[in-house]
Amino acid sequence: MFTLEFDGRRLASQEDFYRQLTTQYISVFEFGDSLDALWDWLTGELPLPLTINFNHLSQAQLQPDQPLAPIFALLFEAQLTLEGQLFITCDGVPLTEVAPSIGDNCH
Fold first, then answer.
1. Which domain holds residue 27?
2. E strand residue ranges, the chain
3. Is the dihedral of CA 54, 59, 64, 66 positive or negative?
């Protein structure tokens, strides 16, 4: 299983997330630094099964009015779409247990 690790202490914006992503996974395809590009990578570029683990993430960062909310909503939607091939965790605990309402933000 392939694992990506994100440091919540260094995640204040979507750009911070994209930067951490592209330093961990090198591709022949350029990443577009957008939610559409993230969706494309999750559903076609990154190896599956995949675990995305967030370390040191605060409850405040998980709130719907925070800059990372669209990313968490997209990750949750991708997790549903990929049916058991994508696991999103916070310090090893499933994201939906840490923030049960995270799925409410799906678009």
1. 2-105
2. 2-7, 50-55, 86-90, 93-94
3. negative
CATH of residue 38: 3.30.370.10
Quote the number of domains for the chain. Answer: 1
Which pTM was predicted?
0.89
pLDDT digits (tens, 9 = 90+) for 30-89: 889 999 999 999 999 999 999 999 999 998 998 999 999 999 999 999 999 999 999 999
Per-residue pLDDT tens digits for 36-52: 999 999 999 999 999 99
d(CA 56, CA 81): 26
Instruction: Please count the CA atoms within 13 angstroms of the CA of 60 that sit on its side-chain side.
Output: 5
